[in-house]
């Protein structure tokens, strides 16, 4: 099977200035002579063109495959093309400083729009709308006049034993936030210090459209990354592991990301996802059962966004460990939750990729039979819930 994860977009933003009067065009500069110099505001045309320019092949190390049922459960294993966007225009006046004087926010349903601009400097933020499969969006956008931060809603609880394993060893490390839902895929671009000049010499004249054009180039990058997770079970010919209940989670992933910069937050979270088991697959010449899933996440804590130069982890919270937690159902109907350290795999694929766990079933200790061992650490009793305060720094 050949499947590609398309990872980054390139965005071309032509900015066209339409300068019209009733009888004639205006000569530069863009103001009328006379007392007070009455300025005519330019009308800016912005167009987004999306170009896929980075592919990762899944042929060599992906054993689980991807069939129609997987697609119906989790959707495509690749990145989808956005169809609509949210836009924030941050006006900064004549001073190209980070301070935003106002924020004009609006939505666009196509890749082209026109707006009047004041003269001066602008920052502009574009991010794609969420196309949630079931119509329920879990990504939450927290907006201020200077930036937008994306977080997600919480899901079911997690036992104290797992939460204690997800906490870092440093004194300043904050506790894990329990289980968070997977964020939906979306993309963002943040061109800064766009200067809208009053001088026509700063624009390119288009005789066909009879307008003046200014072109800006930037990149639309993914702000949520895709991990394909697979658990390869071998030496399971006696069927001691008969299935899964679908529960799995990945620890120490970022609980938020800055939509403007793409830099992830430093508060760790455990991201919940579902799994499915396929039996009797051939993996490296050996008959194996493979548990697979698609996982979406903001990425590692304190991590920079994806760049063409490379995807190595360059964060600062090196004390955090990434563990995969997953439930296995034994042939005696007992259920046990296991953990596996995937820290090195996550750091070497900081912006998505394939996480693989090899499980020798002959080395697993079966749970004792009985009602006490038919539950899951992902669904604890009420007394076992950890107290969590949902606080996000914007």
The N- to C-terminal Cα distance equals: 42 Å
- Total number of helices: 3
> What's the number of extended β-strand segments?
26
Q: What value does the Rg take, in angstroms?
A: 26 Å
Structural class, by secondary structure, is mainly beta
Shape: elongated
Query: What count of domains describes the coordinates?
Result: 1
Average the pLDDT over all residues and give the rounded result: 75
Order of helices and strands, N to C? EEEEEHEEEEEEHEEEEEEEEEEEEEEHE
Low-confidence stretches: 1-13, 15-39, 158-177, 379-394
Give an account of the 3D structure.
- The protein is mainly beta and 394 residues long.
- The protein has one domain.
- It contains 3 helices and 26 strands.
- The protein has helices spanning 68-74, 160-166, 343-348, and strands at 4-6, 9-18, 43-47, 50-52, 55-57, 85-93, 102-108, 112-116, 120-128, 139-143, 148-152, 179-180, 187-189, 194-196, 204-206, 211-222, 225-234, 241-243, 247-254, 256-258, 268-274, 276-283, 286-297, 323-330, 335-341, 353-360.
- The strands form 5 sheets. Strands 2, 3, 4, 6, 7, 8, 9, 13, 14, 15 and 16 form an 11-stranded antiparallel β-sheet that branches. Strands 12, 18, 19, 21, 24 and 25 form a 6-stranded mixed β-sheet that branches. A 4-stranded mixed β-sheet has the order 22-23-17-26, with no helix packed on it.
- It is elongated.
Q: How do the helices and strands line up, and which of them pair or pack?
A:
Blueprint: E1 4-6, E2 9-18, E3 43-47, E4 50-52, E5 55-57, H1 68-74, E6 85-93, E7 102-108, E8 112-116, E9 120-128, E10 139-143, E11 148-152, H2 160-166, E12 179-180, E13 187-189, E14 194-196, E15 204-206, E16 211-222, E17 225-234, E18 241-243, E19 247-254, E20 256-258, E21 268-274, E22 276-283, E23 286-297, E24 323-330, E25 335-341, H3 343-348, E26 353-360
Parallel strand pairs: 12-21, 17-26
Antiparallel strand pairs: 1-5, 2-3, 2-4, 2-16, 3-8, 6-7, 6-9, 9-13, 9-14, 10-11, 11-20, 13-16, 15-16, 17-23, 18-24, 19-21, 19-24, 22-23, 24-25
């Amino acid at each position: 099977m050949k499947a590609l994860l398309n990872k980054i977009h390139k965005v071309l933003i032509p900015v066209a200035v339409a300068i019209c009067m009733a009888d004639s065009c205006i000569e530069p500069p863009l103001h009328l002579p006379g007392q007070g110099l009455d300025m005519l505001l330019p009308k800016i045309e912005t167009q987004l063109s999306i170009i896929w320019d980075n592919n990762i092949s899944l042929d060599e190390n992906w054993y689980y495959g991807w069939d129609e049922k997987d697609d119906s459960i989790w959707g495509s294993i690749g990145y989808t093309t956005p169809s609509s966007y949210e836009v924030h225009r941050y006006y900064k006046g004549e001073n190209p400083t980070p301070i935003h004087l106002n924020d004009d926010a609006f939505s666009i349903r196509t890749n082209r729009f026109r707006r009047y601009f004041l003269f001066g400097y602008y920052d502009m933020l574009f991010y794609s709308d969420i196309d949630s499969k079931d119509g329920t969006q879990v990504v939450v956008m927290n907006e201020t006049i200077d930036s937008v931060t994306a977080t997600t809603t919480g899901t079911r609880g997690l036992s104290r034993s797992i939460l204690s394993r997800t906490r870092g060893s440093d004194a300043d490390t904050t506790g894990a936030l329990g289980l968070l839902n997977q964020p939906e895929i979306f993309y963002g671009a943040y061109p800064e210090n766009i200067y809208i000049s009053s001088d026509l010499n700063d624009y390119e004249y288009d005789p066909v459209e009879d307008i003046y054009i200014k072109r800006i180039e930037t990149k639309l990058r993914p702000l949520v990354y895709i991990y394909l997770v697979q658990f390869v079970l071998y030496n399971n010919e006696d069927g001691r592991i008969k299935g899964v209940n679908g529960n799995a989670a990945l620890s120490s992933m970022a609980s938020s990301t800055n939509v403007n910069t793409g830099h992830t937050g430093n508060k760790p979270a455990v991201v919940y996802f579902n799994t499915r088991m396929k039996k009797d697959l051939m993996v490296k010449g050996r008959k194996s059962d493979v548990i697979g899933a698609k996982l979406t996440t903001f990425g590692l804590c304190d991590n920079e966004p994806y760049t063409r130069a490379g995807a190595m982890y360059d964060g600062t919270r090196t004390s955090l460990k990434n563990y995969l937690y997953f439930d296995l159902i034994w042939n005696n109907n007992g259920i046990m939750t296991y953990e596996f350290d995937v820290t090195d795999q996550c750091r070497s694929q900081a912006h998505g990729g394939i996480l693989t766990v090899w499980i020798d079933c002959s080395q697993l200790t079966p749970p004792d039979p009985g009602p006490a061992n038919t539950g899951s650490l992902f669904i604890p009793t009420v007394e076992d819930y950890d107290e969590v305060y949902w606080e996000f720094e914007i």
